Amino acid sequence: MSNVWSMIGTYAIVFAVGGALCALAEILIVRTKLTPARILVIFLIAGIALEGVGLYDSIFKACQAGISVPIVGFGASLAKGAIEAARTYGFLGAFAGGLIRTAFGVGAAIVMSYIVTLTFSPKTK
Length: 125
Known about the structure:
Elements lengths: L1 H30 L4 H17 L3 H8 L1 H4 L2 H19 L3 H28 L5
Helix pairs in contact: 2-5, 5-6
């Protein structure tokens, strides 16, 4: 029974953190003149900065998918790939590392979006 409560607690933390990030983005949209694209870039850079200074892993241990699924996690993954490749291959590795590390996720998103457009035939306004 304790495993069930542990799982429920984990889900609650993930939901709260992911919801807080979404609420923060919504507040920025409503209260500022920032466009959604700029807010996306801010969150991406926040993930890169957290990974760059070494804080992302400790935040991930506490928040899990609540921090890794939004765009913040994508930014951290880009930074981690760039850092690892730079250590392995030198300066030029920094340019390819982020792309190599995130290529599978980006590719999957492109394929799934194509399947969705074929299935639902979207209409533009």
